[in-house]
Amino acid sequence: MFRTAVVALAVAVCADASAQSVVRTADPIKRGLKLTDFPRTIKVTNNVYTYEDFHAGDEKFTTTNMFVVTDEGVLVADGQGSVPETKGLVDAIAKVTSQPIKYVVICSDHGDHTAGNSAFPAGVTYIIHPTSKAILDLAANSWKPPANAVLVPDRHSLKLGAEEIDIIFLGRAHTGGDLSVSLPRRKILFLSETFLNRVFPAMRSAYPTEWLKALDRAEAMKADVYIAGHGFTESGPVSREELREYHKAVEAVIAEATRLHTAGVPVEEAVKQAQFGRYSEWTLSRSQAPIAVRRVYAELDKKLQ
Ligand SMILES: [Zn+2]
């Protein structure tokens, strides 16, 4: 009996250690993966999966979707950036279940998560924040949400099969219409682009200080597993640490740009002078750091509405 207990404990410790030893990066090669490993489907827990495919561009990192399988259909959170890529997601879902896709939640309105949406079956119900609906309605060359899309300004709960699903607006973050999908029974929170796992805070359309508040709310929900819209799907303990780390990254970016603003450094000079320490190693830092500095300046200058 003693022996059995020791073995069980050893297994538990071992599983935990392997989760902790994963390479913390958005870069598939540094992670020890091959480019041919993607796209891929990851089982988060029974009936809850993520699908990871590469974002467009030379710097490889994943755009990550979540799907929830129930005996009354499937809910998908976010799509990929092109019709063939989102077709890949639809096909991957069909490999897991014969249940039809019933709902698609547009957690981020950006093209890398919506441009492939016409690959979803006709008749799915789209769920979207009114701000994101307005952005997509007005944007040139974007996928357009249908007129019967369900608008969620704050919170919307639905039951699909036995699964309780909450669609939540945690506040303006990366797009202004950011929605998250919570599975309260399983303590899983899909944060879409409110959480970029080891990807430099991308602020082209962001509300920097409000993003921090959204992250506060996400952490206060005390989920077991947080899923990012870009970067890898992590095990629960790693996902919680990485959400904290991402929160610190957004704080650091705002602090550095604010320091330069307070010192009276003109914005384009600040772009050159800004130092982001360890975050300058993160995916997309080169392209996103200047954009972030300009966006924090715009907020400080009260140019964001
Ligand atoms: Zn994105």
Question: Which descriptors apply to this entry?
Answer:
about 300 residues, alpha/beta, 5-stranded mixed β-sheet, 8 helices, disordered N terminus, binds zinc ion
Describe it.
This protein is an alpha/beta fold and 305 residues long. It is built from eight helices and twelve strands. A seven-stranded mixed beta sheet has the order 1-2-3-4-5-6-7. The chain has a five-stranded mixed beta sheet with strand order 8-9-10-11-12. Helix 5 links the parallel strand 11 and strand 12. The N and C termini lie far apart (65 Å). 43% of the residues are buried. The protein binds zinc ion. Zinc ion (ZN) binds next to helix 3. Zinc ion binds next to helix 3.
Task: Describe the SSE topology.
Elements: H1 2-20, E1 40-45, E2 48-54, E3 62-70, E4 73-77, H2 83-96, E5 101-106, H3 111-114, E6 125-128, H4 130-138, E7 150-151, E8 155-160, E9 163-168, E10 180-183, E11 188-190, H5 208-220, E12 225-227, H6 236-262, H7 267-273, H8 285-300
Helix pairs in contact: 5-6, 6-8, 7-8
Largest sheet: 7 strands, mixed
- How are the strands ordered across the major sheet? 1-2-3-4-5-6-7
Report the C-alpha radius of gyration, rounded: 20 Å
What oligomeric state do these chains adopt?
Answer: single chain
Q: What separation lies between the terminal Cα atoms? A: 65 Å
Extended strand count: 12
* Number of helices in the DSSP assignment: 8
Low-confidence stretches: 1-17
> What is the overall pLDDT average?
94
Structural class of the helices, strands and pairings? alpha/beta
Strand content: 15-25%
Task: Give the fraction of residues assigned to helices.
Answer: 25-40%
Shape: globular
SSE string, helices as H and strands as E:
HEEEEHEHEHEEEEEHEHHH
Question: Which cofactor or ligand species appear?
Answer: zinc ion
